[in-house]
Design brief:
By secondary structure, this protein is of the alpha/beta class. Helices cover 33% and strands 14% of the residues. An eight-stranded mixed sheet has the order 1-2-4-3-5-6-7-8, with helices on both faces. Helix 2 crosses helix 3, helix 4 (160-175) packs antiparallel against helix 5 and helix 5 crosses helix 6 (197-213). The longest helix is centred in the C-terminal third of the chain and has 17 residues, at 197-213.
Length: 295
């Protein structure tokens, strides 16, 4: 029986216990993180930002809870124009004002980055999709094209499994023990990937970022929050939208993606047949997102 263990083997391969052949012992080294900047916002919260590309259109990318710039950059790899990646409050080097925080606060962060950078298109993943929904109820005509990747919650609270997982991540990061954080983060990986060089590389990158930057206590209220009181408020959004869900994803129920697509007048829904799409269908996902945003 081979189980997940932490710390990882120093040579980059999986650590196995008991007899059996080992997998390759080397993996592709992680690329160095690019230099970011702190943007001073009108609402007094400095936000960490990375700008790549040039020209129009300009697209803003909003990440999920406990993630950040590094995890959203792959979604923009084939997107033309200038791309704005940022960290919500409480993530990375962004400020962490006194909490608790709501989706209205996160929507304000997203709006500010978009306004300062002149973004006309928006991408939101999980938490970022919720913040984008909240922004759109206040300004339904703000963007020309929209992508929602794995929306997690709209007008009904998250399920118990999702709340427990997110709470466990916040508590593990607050405790500062690498093994405990790794136990939670490895659940983000499909079982087939968890004990492979690629899986270990992902874990190292995520743990380096989480243990270095931490997650602010103000985020503890987010798993119990909802971005909208009524999803029908999105009926005023007329921009074309792409909504992407995955069947079998406990943190991002496919029913939420279906509800969001039904609430948006010009939405196209695509559902992948299994979770872990970033590992199982990465090329198709990138092509789908870039083709939609580049129209």
């Amino acid at each position: 029986m081979r189980d997940f263990r932490w710390p990882p083997p120093p040579d980059g391969g999986p650590r196995t216990w008991g007899p059996g052949p080992g997998a390759p012992r080397t993996g592709r080294p992680a690329l160095p993180e690019p230099e970011t900047e702190l943007v001073v916002t009108p609402h007094g919260v400095r936000l960490e930002q990375l700008v790549t590309g040039a020209g129009d259109p300009v697209t803003v990318f909003a990440h999920g809870l406990g993630n950040g710039i590094a995890t959203t950059r792959p979604f923009g790899s084939g997107v033309t124009g200038r791309k704005l990646f940022f960290q919500f409050r409480g993530h990375g080097r962004s400020d962490a004002p006194a909490g608790p925080w709501s989706y209205a606060d996160l929507a304000r962060d997203l709006r500010t980055v978009a306004d300062l950078g002149g973004a006309t298109r928006a991408f939101g993943a999980s938490l970022g999709a919720g913040a984008l929904c909240r922004l759109l109820t206040e300004s339904p005509g703000r963007f020309e094209r929209l992508v929602f990747f794995l929306p997690a919650v709209l007008d009904r609270a998250r399920g118990e499994v999702a709340r427990e997982r997110l709470t466990a991540l916040l508590e593990a990061v607050d405790g500062g023990d690498a093994a405990t954080v790794a136990d939670v983060v490895q659940l983000e990986l499909p079982p087939a990937v968890r004990n492979t060089p690629a899986g270990w590389a992902y874990l190292r990158q995520r743990l380096d970022q989480l243990l270095r930057d931490g997650l602010a206590p103000g985020l503890a209220s987010v798993p119990d929050s909802v971005p909208l009181t009524d999803a029908t408020a999105l009926a005023a959004v007329t921009a074309p939208a792409l909504v992407i869900g995955c069947a079998g994803d406990d943190l991002h129920p496919v029913e939420v993606a279906e509800q969001l697509a039904a609430a948006l007048p010009r939405a196209t829904l695509h559902v992948y047949g299994r979770p872990g799409v970033l590992w199982t269908d990465r090329a198709d996902l990138r092509t789908r997102i870039s083709a939609f945003l580049n129209e």
